[in-house]
Amino acid sequence: MKPAPQLHQQIAADVKLGAGVKIFGFVNLYGCEIGDESKIGTFVEIQKGAKVGRRCKVSSHSFLCEGVTLEDEVFIGHNVTFTNDRFPRATRTDGSLQTDADWTCVPTLVKRGASIGSGATVLCGITIGERATVGAGSVVTKDVPAGATVAGNPARLL
């Protein structure tokens, strides 16, 4: 009998995992919190300071950067990307490499029960309201009201 295949996971010691969390293979988690009964799909990265609530589903190939908070029961579709910097640059004006001191993390909040469709990009500094829906492939540049549905680039109310 063959041994069970090993799941390649990079889960740092500083990750706080709730009870019953399911994590699939090829993930990279560090300095984050994941609430009870949440599911983290394959090829997901969740960075330090990000928080995932209880009973959330983060689908494969998604990226949750520092500053992102998902409240309870949030759905994140495949390949969803969050940002945390309004003016990203690799270097300073003098050409030297930027450091952590050269930027400020801009937080993003996804409220309870919201759903974000596959391939969406969520810019930093916004709030997606409770039970709101973001259509697949959308680029979210502004707050989304509770219960609203938005889609498009930029995302607009439907």
Q: What can you tell me about this protein's structure?
A:
By secondary structure, the chain is mainly beta. It has a single domain (8-85, 105-158), classed as UDP N-Acetylglucosamine Acyltransferase, domain 1, CATH 2.160.10. Helix content is 0%, strand content 30%. The chain has no helices and 21 strands. It has strands at 9-11, 16-17, 22-23, 27-29, 33-34, 39-40, 45-46, 51-52, 57-58, 63-64, 68-70, 75-76, 81-82, 108-110, 115-116, 121-122, 127-128, 133-134, 139-140, 149-151, 156-157. Strand 20 and strand 21 (156-157) form a beta hairpin. The radius of gyration is 16 Å and the shape is globular.
What's the alpha carbon Rg, rounded to whole Å? 16 Å
Strand order of the largest sheet: 3-6-9-12-15-18-20-21
Give helix % range. Answer: under 10%
What is the CATH topology classification name? UDP N-Acetylglucosamine Acyltransferase, domain 1
Mean pLDDT: 94
CATH superfamily: Hexapeptide repeat proteins
CATH arch. level architecture: 3 Solenoid
